[in-house]
Predict the 3D structure of the following.
Amino acid sequence: MARAEIAARTLRTDRWWLPPLTTFVGLLLISIYAAFRTFQGDYYWVDQYHYLTPMYSPCLTEECIPAASHFGQWFPALPGFLTPPLLIIPFLLGFRITCYYYRKAYYRAAWASPPACAVAEPHSKYTGETRFPLIAQNLHRYFFYAASLLLLINIYDALLAFGTGVGLGNIILLVNVGLLAAYTLSCHSCRHIAGGRLKHFSKHPVRYWAWTQISKLNNRHMQLAWASLIFVCLTDLYVALVASGTISDLRFIN
Amino acid sequence: MSYQGKFRVWRGDDSGGGLEDFTVEVNEGEVVLDIIHRLQATQAPDLAVRWNCKAGKCGSCSAEINGRPRLLCMTRMSIFQESETITVTPMRTFPIIRDLVTDVSFNYTKAREVPSFAPPKDLAPGEYRMQQVDVERSQEFRKCIECFLCQNTCHVVRDHEENKEAFSGPRFLMRVAELEMHPLDTADRVDQAQDEHGLGLCNITKCCTEVCPEHIHITDNALIPMKERVADRKYDPIVWLGNKLFKRS
């Protein structure tokens, strides 16, 4: 027996193309900004107030401003146009790229697989996440571990900046790590590690409690993914503007 | 308040068919299934439609309304503009029988492929006391009414007929998850999910969750947790090393 003969790719009458288009444009703009700032190699540290942008933290190579290298300079200066963030960005990018929410977002928006529900995809063949390279999405938990470590470093940076007083930059750095922490904790892998893999919740009350709390955050994973991503860029922009002298930091306590 | 609504309904069978235009009376408080029934009663007595409870609990009247997979009985006419032409078509993923009725036996085949609940052999009835927190996760999945809208929407089979053999679809991967999360189930369902039910084909684009009339979090609570369990078993080098070192099976 055959399927019903309906030639149209979709009969949806709503603006189904709007969410994938918005996602695509949003991710593209953020990627362009992040690439520009990564390769700019400057304006990442405000010496006066000890603000370090999260995009350059930790700054581990010899071309880093010494005061910005809170954890030392482990590596020699990178050659050519390469900059210090290139040592940490693979982990942060890996965490976002393998994230269950972002997978949905870019499979739909960038790969049209599918572009929207009940809208036919343009590909003639589909193997999902069964083969290389997409089978590597299963490594999400390792990127989660790496991102958690980098988050702790970002928290340390944000707290360290309070040593010079309190300004708007401190508040921004603090909100940034708050959003990053919420996004990282709401991760599906984190939820699984905390308690999701258990069969008997009743035998592990502490892990069950952790799982229920993470599940609440996990319900907002998409919102936290966007909020933390956008706010990282805004934080970086603020630090760059202050570091370059374009604006001065609004100080509350000096 | 009544008005004359414009409808386009797919009529035909496996030898061919197409959309036919109708104008049907719509009254306040009605759902799309009411209109289909009025259409049957007044203009197209041979129109085929599968329905039963008219309360969103039997899962019979699944179809596509303006291209969106929905239950005919749970789609209120009040969500549409009076001037709008409403298109009603059968589910695309399954073979057509006639008009709005499809052959959903693919799902029954897949259901039979999931091994049933396997409690420990030495457990006598009444010996085990189930705690509420242990069954809550699977209870969510038991809300499923088997309307198969998720199976119909999933692009893995909707857009790729050739995947039907390898992929059980969200409804039955959810069934596997339900059994896997059951404290007393002893069957090994993790490898099965990946190797026999095609979990790896799912790219978690969440359309199953979007269309579920019972609002089950299929992707977040069943498919992703199963993917994580598969990652534990098959793709986690540290777990693999731990198993080797401590001789865990």
About this structure: The beta strands of chain B are 3-13, 16-26, 62-65, 68-71, 85-89, 96-98, 101-102.
